[in-house]
UniProtKB/TrEMBL annotation:
This is Glucose-1-phosphate thymidylyltransferase. It comes from the Bacteria. Keywords: Magnesium, Metal-binding, Nucleotidyltransferase, Transferase. Its EC number is 2.7.7.24. It holds the Pfam family NTP_transferase. It is an enzyme of class 2 (transferase). It catalyses: dTTP + alpha-D-glucose 1-phosphate + H(+) = dTDP-alpha-D-glucose + diphosphate. Its cofactor is Mg(2+). Residues 3-236 form the Nucleotidyl transferase domain.
Amino acid sequence: MRGIILAGGSGTRLHPLTIAVSKQLLPVYNKPMVYYPLSTLILAGARQIMIITSPRDVSSFRDLLGDGSDLGIELLYKIQDEPRGIAEGLLLSADFADGEPTALILGDNIFYGAGVGETLETYSKKEGATILVQSVTDPERYGVIELRSDGSVKSLAEKPPAPKSNLAITGLYFLDGTAAERAKLLKPSDRGELEIVDVLNSYLHDGLLEARVLPRGTAWLDTGTFDSMSMASEFVRVVEQRQGFKISAPEEIAFRLGLIDSEQLIKLAEKYSKSDYGVYLRSLIG
């Protein structure tokens, strides 16, 4: 399975912070925001990951993450000249995906919970699309899904004024090799964007869309506003300080999955030698 991180966009809801820097490079507590979706994709089984970002920010992402070899993975970068919708990411990454299943994640989404990695890995499949949904108190802010009594998908709509359920579609999509071809058939919405909901409706029309409700105890956070980013930072701070481990540290995940060895981990820790992050990575070597 290939992975795609959408880290473009103008981040206007976070102005003036994002006038000069991508929001995915802003901190969520003690790590850049992009560390969280990157960690999610690695846990889900992706070993080749493309980061789609703006011309202004691509060099900053390269400086931060490199080519991925330090983590035992491959990272590639693609420029999106202007934000034209989530589904455009499928077109930009079509050659990279090469007809293989992909996991596409929004760069401002955070997933956390016991067994999340093992759970996500089961969602990759050869045919169809799987979306993750979670109950929220303000579904009108999200794409909303309506389920039948047997759990099958009945309908979905983007930010409906009168939601038919409180189940919001999260920013993580598992798609088969037909996703790019489906995106090619889309017409821009009234917002002038290629909507991911239209891609999902294409799968639904073909009877190939599956929804999985995230279990209770799984946290899904998006960090696209000042309040949500602040709440996410506080969530990460409380959990890390209470339990003594890091949330979404890519180096630790790579080490525990056997993608890198202890010697490689120590070298990575030396990059952060004077920070708590470096101390934590060194502590992982028993």
